[in-house]
Specification:
Length: 71
């Protein structure tokens, strides 16, 4: 089968993989993610920083609605 590598930040990698898997389902394509490091939005104590908390909550909402609405 053919393959595709999606390059994104680790922060967006779960949602990106979900989108590509759903849109390319049924095709003989192997999907992999190459996640880059995001030094500004790392997972370390994101809940203690107001900006990081906001960005993480937005990404959680996007992930949920991608899961809910992507066919």
């Amino acid at each position: 089968p053919r393959s595709i590598t999606v390059v994104t930040t680790g922060f967006h990698s779960r949602r990106a993989l979900m989108i590509f898997e759903r849109k390319l389902s049924g095709l003989p394509i192997r999907i992999s993610i190459a996640a880059s490091e995001d030094k500004l939005l790392g997972p370390e104590k994101w809940w203690l920083d107001k900006h990081k908390r906001s960005v993480y909550m937005q990404e959680f909402a996007k992930l949920f609605f991608t899961w809910l609405l992507t066919d």
